[in-house]
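User: For documentation purposes, I need each entry recorded in a consistent format: the amino acid sequence on its own, followed directly by the corresponding structure tokens. There are two entries in this batch. Please keep commentary to a minimum and don't merge the entries.

Assistant: Recorded as requested. Entry 1:
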Amino acid sequence: MTLDEFVGLSAALTGYDADVLKPSADTQRVSEALYAELSNPDNKISPAQLQQLTDTWNAIAHTPAAQLEDQVWQQIVQNPAINRLAQNIIYMWYLGIWYDLGKNPNSFATPNNDHVVSSVAYINGLVWGEMGAHPMGFSTGDYGYWAHTPTLPAINAVSAAVLK
């Protein structure tokens, strides 16, 4: 899987535009940090599973936008051979955490919380924007911003179903 394929798949899985996940002026390089996790040998990703996810994504990547969400749901999210890896990609984007698929391959109930991908991935996790919040110990808000009610954007239907 190339970085561009990873970003395209991530956009489909998270509901964020690829330009948001990998902006042209990318000073944080979050997409690169998360992409590197796919080749981290400690993550025990089966090369066959990663290739199947890549092949499946490439087969549906050029589907018209109106049908792409359904194709992602049917071909990836509903496919038990690759859906855990796809879920992990979503979790990386939202939380900046890699869940050890080898420890508990059938559940995220006991995640390996020690495996934060990187400080950049954690700080830039999509969950913070979804919650209208910021990670502990890091904020770009002006003094007193906490006095204002946060705004909550709508979550993508595929991501919402996967994150249940």
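Entry 2:
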Amino acid sequence: MTAMILAQANPPGMPIPALFWLGVVTLGVIALLGGLFITKYFNLWIQAFLTHANVSIVDLVGMSFRKVNPNIIVRSKIMAYQAGLTEKDGLSTRALESHYLAGGNVPNVIRALIAANRADIPLSYKQATAIDLAGRNVLEAVQTSVNPKVIPCPDPSQGRSTIDGVARNGIQLKVKAKVTVRTNLDRLVGGATDETIIARVGEGIVNAIGSADTHLLVLERPDSISKRVLEKGLDAGTAYEILSIDIADIDVGDNIGANLQALQAEADMRVARAKAEERRAFAVAKEQEMQAAVQENRAKVVEAEAEIPMAIAEAFRQGHLGVGEYYNLKNVQADTEMRTAIAGTGGNSRQPAGTQP
């Protein structure tokens, strides 16, 4: 029939088989495009239609032009509608596309909203997308809100196995704690996470041990540590609400007080030795100075004694000293030397200046 129609419309000079094959190719291309269209969009559209997800063919084609994966949007919306969430909850096709284009994890957000809805946890689509775009796992946050998680303190992955504190009597205690927390969705965006909780709890444990008079008081009542830490409100500004702090293990460590006292005594001894050495060096220097002063004075005495013969000669020339007086002076001098020699104390007076006794 088609060949007859083409033959009737065929202008003179053009062969009928060429038009026939042109029509066949055109129909084939149209059929191929239609098949691809049906394969890519119709399957999704029929799924959305049967589940009342309200996604049209035009929306599906538009997603392709906007570089949005229609499979993710349609399946996420179907999942939400099947769980009782509708566009009244903010789950419109355009909103899902917007979150996808912003780099968000649409299926994870939908799963989180479904979990929150089942657990009667107030969580809006806007809040969930904000948490997701902040880099937090919103589904895990909802699950943690339902089932609190336990954070070991300290974190073994950071290389520390215990939190060490020292009581007032100097005894060290090694503590392992477990912190049970529940996610606070209202503070999840911008709130501190596990690392801050571990740091604050560790600080509180060290403070609580340091406030105890003896380590025995802490060993008798380990729960006093957790009570003291909980009273400080360590979860302020964090994404979690601390439910409990449990002391899992506590051991006695070194006597830090005695070690510090021994180190202090050693340091004091070194300081005292240094000061003694300083005083000894000062005394030696002073002794050297005094010996130099003695030698200087001896030189002056020798110099003065050397002037006596010249003074006697001048006295003779001036007539102030007679021969008799001179011999009397010599006798007194000889008598003095004899007495000094007998007493054994006059050796130094005979030695020349600058020589040692």
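Summary note for entry 2:
Confidence is low (pLDDT under 50) at residues 349-357.
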